[in-house]
Amino acid sequence: MSMLSTPTSAPASGTDQVAALNATTLYRFFRAGDEETLALKGVSLTVAAGEFVVVAGPSGSGKSTLLSCLAGLDEPDGGSVLVNGSRLSHQSEPRRARARAESIGLLLQSSNLFDHLTVTQNVVLAQRLLGASRPVDASELIASLGLATRAHARPDELSGGELARAGLAVALANDPAVLLADEPTGELDHVTEAQVLQLLSVRAAVGLAIVVASHSPAVAAAADRVVHLVDGKVTPDA
Ligand SMILES: Nc1ncnc2c1ncn2[C@@H]1O[C@H](COP(=O)(O)OP(=O)(O)OP(=O)(O)O)[C@@H](O)[C@H]1O
């Protein structure tokens, strides 16, 4: 097995502990007419519980494609994705959906909030839709993200930072083992970005495995490890 990227700050590394996320030699091709794009060219990534990893790289380097494959929203053309030791890739869509609901929190570029629902209602709906096996207390979760006073506000009544934290609350509604986030601080000012990063670090400290795709130097600085993607491949640290 080729591990192009190994954890440097993972708890209990070198033991038999199962990684929260284990992607091995992922390939993904896209074909549009005669044109073929190799978006991922053998990407491997292992993330331990409690580790906060940033995937950095220029536009078009494959970050979003990688996150989609890690989430089981897209199927890699080659390689495998394991979540908590169970295979996610190359399973039927219902099985992938179940595994996603059970173990993965998603914060993608499109909002995961319904506009006509309050923050609390969004979290509770996410728990129902996910068939939460371990529903966390919505009020506690919302308060832990600093949104207690905004719990009954709708998304259009929230500031950018509050929106980011509300999206995070929905992503964490099912107490996932792994959080996958695509540019979660892309729209935020530096102060608000720092607050969101602090919340992510707190979550990692209690065992959440986090993979964030981001261009932001602040996100890279907050992470335990930065994986650089260039042209669909992991490159040695820049
Ligand atoms: N559905 C698709 N069909 C065809 N090509 C695609 C598709 N999705 C992604 N690609 C191509 O795959 C490559 C990687 O795209 P991807 O969106 O993963 O990059 P990225 O690093 O996330 O970029 P950005 O930082 O701009 O979001 C790009 O060349 C892109 O054009």
TrEMBL record:
PROSITE patterns reported for this sequence: ABC_TRANSPORTER_1 (PS00211), ABC_TRANSPORTER_2 (PS50893)
SMART domains with a match to the protein in the record: AAA
GO molecular function (one): ATP binding
Record key words, sorted: ATP-binding, Nucleotide-binding
Domain of life where this protein originates: Bacteria
Transmembrane regions listed in the UniProt entry: none
Domain ABC transporter residue range list: 21-238
Matching InterPro entries: AAA+_ATPase (IPR003593), ABC_transporter-like_ATP-bd (IPR003439), ABC_transporter-like_CS (IPR017871), ABC_transpr_LolD-like (IPR015854), P-loop_NTPase (IPR027417)
Family, per entry: Belongs to the ABC transporter superfamily.
Designated name of the protein: ATP-binding cassette domain-containing protein
Organism from which the protein derives: Jatrophihabitans telluris
